[in-house]
Amino acid sequence: MEREQRIKIAVQKSGRLADNSLELLKRCGLNYSRGTDQLICFGENMPVDVLLVRDDDIPSLLAEGVCELGIVGLNVLLEKAAEGPGLTEPTELGSLDFGHCRLSIAVPRGTTYRGTESLAGKRIATSYPRILATWLSERGIEAEIVVLSGAVEIAPRLGRADLICDLVSTGSTLAANDLEEVDLVLDSRAVLVAGERPADSLRAEWVDRLVSRVDGVLRVRESKYIMLHAPRAALDEIRDLLPGSEAPTVMPLDGMDDKVAVHAVCQENVFWETLESLKRAGASSVLVLPVEKMLA
Ligand code: ATP
Ligand code: ZN
Fold this sequence. Notes:
Layout: E1 7-12, H1 18-27, E2 40-42, E3 48-53, H2 58-63, E4 69-73, H3 74-79, E5 91-95, E6 101-108, E7 123-126, H4 129-138, E8 144-147, E9 163-168, H5 172-176, E10 179-188, E11 190-194, H6 201-222, E12 224-231, H7 235-241, E13 249-253, E14 256-266, H8 272-280, E15 284-290
Parallel strand pairs: 1-3, 1-4, 7-8, 7-9
Antiparallel strand pairs: 2-3, 4-11, 5-11, 6-9, 6-10, 12-14, 12-15, 13-14
Bound molecules: adenosine-5'-triphosphate (ATP) and zinc ion.
């Protein structure tokens, strides 16, 4: 396919989102070759190329039309939303199942915090000034935002700020710096993002195809196919016990009038507890199988 008809998806080159992003694209059926230190990987079996960049650059690459899709943290997307005039705001297409973290307010241990009012007049260090400013103004709080590009967690100790607003996942970095998480500004995770829709219909079709494959991969990760035998009398109860399944298939069993076979795709994890409840409700021959692929 000609170069112009290919689409590009931008992902983080190295860092917390890099491996999961590339693995997701592989699961979507994309094969590509990756040399060391390469900026672009050419898809071998689809007209889709992968740009490997710093996560901070992804929103503007989308806004400028350099790539059609991207995978980036919601925190970065909201902070770097279209910065220039005439640029299209990238659209969030959906949440992915990795990159979870919180953008939180943290104070030096021992500081009393009585809700957002305690932030009034304080100096808050952060790398997310836009998100923080919006959050503060929504709450009618005036505070000074000290913008730092890194090492935010040491700002209070250096006397550069009274407290911080930074990304937290386990909280170990905060603890190591004697800081305490006291308020949540943004619940973040990796998201799939689109720039302007390509005018060319073939390219637009590939964008749609990739988006629907990502959706399929996410749904499959949690999905299970359940098969069981159920007494007709307990069918309603058993149907209600199947987690996240809309319409199970119910089939007659040869030579058995009082029992039916039930097959269902459960779009939630199936735990042992569920199987035990199914058994108590009268289910037998219960089989749980992984789902390989799914297309809505
Ligand atoms: P780059 O070199 O691409 O600019 P970076 O240092 O800015 O990388 P990472 O630390 O790899 O970025 O984090 C990338 C994203 O991972 C964050 O923007 C955030 O969405 C997510 N993330 C998940 N957990 C954490 C965490 N504990 N701290 C920071 N980011 C996290
Ligand atoms: Zn970054």
